[in-house]
From TrEMBL:
<keyword id="KW-0812">Transmembrane</keyword>
<feature type="transmembrane region" description="Helical">
    <location>
        <begin position="157"/>
        <end position="181"/>
    </location>
</feature>
<feature type="transmembrane region" description="Helical">
    <location>
        <begin position="107"/>
        <end position="137"/>
    </location>
</feature>
<comment type="similarity">
    <text>Belongs to the TatC family.</text>
</comment>
<feature type="transmembrane region" description="Helical">
    <location>
        <begin position="193"/>
        <end position="210"/>
    </location>
</feature>
<keyword id="KW-0653">Protein transport</keyword>
<keyword id="KW-0472">Membrane</keyword>
<comment type="function">
    <text>Part of the twin-arginine translocation (Tat) system that transports large folded proteins containing a characteristic twin-arginine motif in their signal peptide across membranes. Together with TatB, TatC is part of a receptor directly interacting with Tat signal peptides.</text>
</comment>
<keyword id="KW-1133">Transmembrane helix</keyword>
<dbReference type="Pfam" id="PF00902">
    <property type="entry name" value="TatC"/>
</dbReference>
<feature type="transmembrane region" description="Helical">
    <location>
        <begin position="20"/>
        <end position="38"/>
    </location>
</feature>
<dbReference type="InterPro" id="IPR019820">
    <property type="entry name" value="Sec-indep_translocase_CS"/>
</dbReference>
<feature type="transmembrane region" description="Helical">
    <location>
        <begin position="216"/>
        <end position="236"/>
    </location>
</feature>
<dbReference type="InterPro" id="IPR002033">
    <property type="entry name" value="TatC"/>
</dbReference>
<comment type="subunit">
    <text>The Tat system comprises two distinct complexes: a TatABC complex, containing multiple copies of TatA, TatB and TatC subunits, and a separate TatA complex, containing only TatA subunits. Substrates initially bind to the TatABC complex, which probably triggers association of the separate TatA complex to form the active translocon.</text>
</comment>
<keyword id="KW-0813">Transport</keyword>
<keyword id="KW-0811">Translocation</keyword>
Length: 243
C-alpha cells in the first residue's frame, strides 16, 4: 500500500476515532447528570417487583459494595440507552458518504425506526411483561421460603430482559433489510411463516424465564412484528424489492 492509499485509510480511522470519542463523551455527560438520581432510578426500576413482594419481604444487598455499585451500573446503562440516538447518528454520519443516494433515503429512516422500536421493546417489557413475570415468580415460591431478591441479581435480570425485548422489536427492521438486500422476498418469507412462528417461541423460551407467560409475551410480539415487517416491505421501491 503506497502513501496515496494510506492517506484516505488514515483519515477514515481519524474520523472513526473522533466519532467514537463524541459518543463516549455524550454517554459520560448523561451519566454525570443522572448520577445524583441513581437511587431514584433504581427504585423506579424495582417497582414492578416491589409491588408483587409480600409485605414482610424486601430487596436485599448481599455484597458490601452493592448499595453503591448497583445503582451506579444502572445509571451508566441508562446513559448508554439515552445516548443511542446520538450514537446511531455518529454511525450514520460515518457511513453516509459511502452510500448511494437511494441507500441514504432508506438507511436513515431504518436507523430512526430501529431506535424507536428498541425503546418500545423496553417500555413493553417494563409495563406489560414485568408485572406478570414477577407476580408468577413470587407466587411460585415454595411454602416457607421468603422471597428477598438481591438488588444486583435483579438488575442483571431486568437488563437481560430489556435487551431481549429491545432486540425482539427489531424484527421488522431485519425483515425489511433482508428483502431490500434481495436476500429473500416477501413471498418466500410468507411460505416460511410457520417456521418463523415456531422460531419465535423458541427464542422466547431461550431469552425469558422458564414460564409460559413470559415466553408467550415475547414470542407473540416477535410474530406480529414480523408481519409488520412484511407489510412495510411492500412499500420498498420495486427496484430493490424485485418480487
Amino acid at each position: 500500500m503506497d502513501n496515496h492509499d494510506q492517506q484516505p485509510f488514515i483519515s477514515h480511522l481519524v474520523e472513526l476515532r473522533d466519532r467514537l470519542l463524541k459518543g463516549v463523551l455524550v454517554v459520560l455527560v448523561i451519566a454525570l447528570c443522572l448520577l445524583p438520581f441513581s437511587n431514584n432510578l433504581y427504585h423506579f426500576l424495582s417497582e414492578p417487583l416491589l409491588e408483587q413482594l409480600p409485605e414482610t419481604s424486601t430487596m436485599i444487598a448481599t455484597e458490601v459494595a452493592s448499595p453503591f455499585l448497583t445503582p451506579f451500573k444502572l445509571t451508566l446503562s441508562t446513559a448508554i440507552l439515552l445516548a443511542v440516538p446520538v450514537l446511531l447518528y455518529q454511525l450514520w454520519a460515518f457511513v453516509a458518504p459511502g452510500l448511494y443516494a437511494h441507500e441514504k433515503k432508506l438507511v436513515f429512516p431504518l436507523l430512526f425506526a430501529s431506535t424507536i422500536l428498541f425503546f418500545l421493546g423496553i417500555v413493553f417489557a417494563y409495563y406489560a411483561v414485568f408485572p406478570l413475570i414477577f407476580a408468577f415468580l413470587t407466587q411460585a415460591a415454595p411454602e416457607g421460603v421468603a422471597v428477598m431478591t438481591d438488588i444486583s441479581s435483579y438488575l442483571d435480570f431486568v437488563l437481560k430482559l430489556f435487551f431481549a425485548f429491545g432486540l425482539a422489536f427489531e424484527v421488522p427492521i431485519a425483515t425489511v433489510l433482508l428483502i431490500w438486500t434481495q436476500a429473500t422476498t416477501v413471498e418466500s418469507l410468507k411460505q416460511k411463516r410457520p417456521y418463523i412462528i415456531v422460531g419465535a417461541f423458541v427464542v422466547g423460551m431461550l431469552l425469558t424465564p422458564p414460564d409460559v407467560i413470559s415466553q408467550t409475551l415475547l414470542a407473540v410480539p416477535i410474530w406480529l412484528l414480523f408481519e409488520m415487517g412484511l407489510f412495510s416491505a411492500r412499500f420498498l421501491p420495486k427496484k430493490q424489492q424485485q418480487l
